[in-house]
Amino acid sequence: MSIAEDAWTVGKVEVKGKPVIYKFLSQLPNEKVKHSLPWLTVVSWKYDGSTNNGMPLPETNKSMISLEDALEKIQGEGLIYKSVYSATGNNLKEFVFYIADQEKFMQKFNVALSHEPVYPIEINFYEDKEWSDLSKLISDFSAAKK
Q1: Is CATH 3.30.70 what the domain over 8-138 is classified as, yes or no?
Q2: I need a surface site. Which of 68, 71, 96, 126 has the fewest CB within 10 A?
């Protein structure tokens, strides 16, 4: 049996005159997946990119890549959570997921990052049963292509 891989899109926009690079799922998952993962979860890292056009400096970017590598080790992809996009620029890095349960996700999150340094991140949860956040992102990039 083969497992279909998700298709991803990479694109750039300007926010307040600064570039922001997005990597996001190219299409919404089926209704069953959406229904099972109703919580939009945003892991945010604010940084000072004032000397680099709003982008992270090399040392900060290296740490962000380490965080991203650790996030990829979270157990339960597809059941407990689904990674849907990341954004970098305008002094902010975000890793965005849809999750089933906040407590279970945070348990898996903490295990995945247990051997990592403490990162200057903030985690916020928003109920988004319709996946409107990702839907808007996909729509915005599709409209920009036209």
Answers
A1: yes
A2: 126
